[in-house]
Specification:
The protein is mainly alpha-helical and 480 residues long. It is built from 17 helices and 2 strands. Strands 1-2 form a two-stranded antiparallel ribbon. The chain starts with 28 loop residues before the first helix and ends with a helix. 55% of the residues are buried.
């Protein structure tokens, strides 16, 4: 438990330590189940909308309006957004907004007991925006991009507070397991909804609707699923006291703005945590861009480049497979982390990610090869993200969980900035999705090298926290 043992690098008197109020009820199974259920709920947005359908459907509508790679938005000398780059531009725009919004919200979460309430507000704002995608049809591609931006910003904001709960409801030795199970059940929940959507899209004619209507209903279902299952989370997750006391000369309206500088100053002091965060933001930007662009990449390279329409059922089938295999992949990498260490497990996953990019660029040309790529992605997807989250949670000083995760979330699931921007620029200038995908290998190699030369154990100790083995050793000593 945080501050329940003393790191070897500290000389504190262990008897002088005391539990923070938010840690008096920890490793509670009901609350952990409620926390995991939010991954089950929000993964519907991440899989059905971000991963499987939205990008390709929005690109199709934009191309119907302005041609294969016509201009959708022009920014003069700064360039233009084309039909092919509209979906990745929407992702980039949403994350650009999050860069300014999420750290402010994170600081607010650390100074108030509103973390649960704010998580609810942004959850259902995102749900509303996702449900509005049902109205996305020909001529409405800019409306669709705007609603997606609103939904993705709300999604990211809710995840800031969701992630900040992880160090408050678990001890360090339980983080990898709980974080991995959250991702695993998220993939399972998202996969079940994708299965239902696959049935609806494939049998659209039997249900008396067009395939495009089936896609629109699938987008709607993601919002309903997200909002519906989130009810379980908010009924089980406890409202916890503010980790930090609000200064007398500050208010809840201003504390978020004034604390940003303090958070970054703390990050500069924790240089190994900062180095890890830079590495994570780098490689996860690549991961998120691959996931966000995969549907468009497959649709364009395997079908539209050959004069054929993309069968929505094919994309749904690929992502459905990814969801169910990723469930086992997340649990597998939790085991690898237990055997080799969390950092080593993440490094292994990044080597595989780099191989996936090379494979897609140089070899992928058939539907069977697309299935192979999907399988490889599924194996490493959950593990790389779940373990990155749990490792970072150990590097956060007590009382700054939401503030630090406000920065972390800039490149968490469904959000990335530089990767989609690079991808969209390469597509706009070359017209080649393969060239754009290959450019992402930089993010995996650079992130891997930064992580490789980061002393993560020292980062944990510098933050005043403890390694899982130290917690386990203390527990065994106390029980003997």
């Amino acid at each position: 438990m945080k501050n329940s043992v003393t790191p070897a690098s500290d000389n504190q008197d262990e008897s002088a330590l005391h539990l923070h109020p938010v840690h008096r009820d920890i490793n509670n199974r009901r609350e952990i189940f409620g926390w995991i259920m939010y991954d089950w709920a929000n993964s519907a947005f991440y899989t059905t909308v971000v991963g499987a359908l939205f990008g390709d459907y929005l690109t199709y509508l934009a191309q119907r309006a302005v041609g294969e790679n016509g201009t959708v938005l022009s920014f003069g000398p700064l360039g233009a957004v084309t039909a092919k780059s509209l979906s990745t531009f929407a992702v980039s725009a949403s994350v650009f907004l999050q860069i300014f919004i999420l750290p402010i919200l994170g600081a607010l979460g650390d100074y108030s007991d509103l973390k649960k309430r704010l998580m609810q507000v942004f959850c259902y704002m995102g749900v509303a925006a996702t449900c509005s995608l049902f109205f996305l049809q020909e001529g409405w591609h800019l409306f669709g991009a705007a609603m997606f931006i609103f939904a993705n910003v709300s999604y990211g904001a809710s995840i800031v507070f969701y992630n900040a709960y992880l160090p408050e409801i678990t001890t360090e030795d339980q983080r990898d397991k709980v974080s991995s199970r959250g991702f695993a059940f998220g993939y399972l929940g998202g996969g079940l909804l994708l299965a239902l959507n696959l049935i609806m899209v494939q049998g659209a004619g039997l249900f008396g609707m067009s395939k495009l209507m089936a896609v629109r209903l699938s987008l709607l279902s993601a919002g309903i699923w997200w909002g519906g299952f989130a009810v379980f989370t908010f009924s089980l997750l406890k409202r916890r006291p503010a980790p930090r006391k609000l200064p007398k000369n500050r208010s809840y309206l201003t504390i978020g703005f004034t604390e940003i500088g303090s958070t970054f100053k703390e990050l500069l002091r924790l240089r190994y945590t900062l180095r890890y965060l830079i590495g994570y933001l780098t490689y996860n930007d690549g991961i998120q861009t691959v996931i966000g662009a995969a549907g468009v990449f497959l649709g364009q390279e395997l079908f539209r480049a050959r004069g054929m329409e993309t069968p929505p059922s094919f994309l749904l089938s690929i992502f459905l497979m990814v969801q169910f295999v990723a469930f086992f992949g997340a649990l597998l990498f939790e085991r690898i982390a237990r055997w080799l260490g969390t950092k080593s497990a993440i490094i292994i996953s990044l080597v595989i990610w780099a191989g996936i990019v090379i494979y897609a660029y140089s070899m992928l040309s058939t539907m069977n090869e697309a299935w192979i790529m999907g399988g490889l992605i599924a194996i490493v997807l959950g593990g790389s993200q779940a373990l990155s989250r749990s490792l970072f949670s150990r590097m956060i000083p007590e009382g700054r969980e939401a503030s630090f995760f406000g920065i972390y979330e800039v490149s968490e699931r469904g959000t990335s900035w530089i990767g989609p921007l690079v991808f969209s620029i390469v597509v706009a200038r070359t017209g080649s999705y393969r060239q754009a995908l290959l450019s992402l290998i930089f993010f995996f190699i650079a992130g891997l090298l930064i992580l490789l030369f980061t002393d993560t154990n020292r980062a944990v100790h510098e933050a005043g926290n403890y390694l899982p083995e130290e917690i386990e050793g203390k527990a065994k000593a106390e029980s003997s």
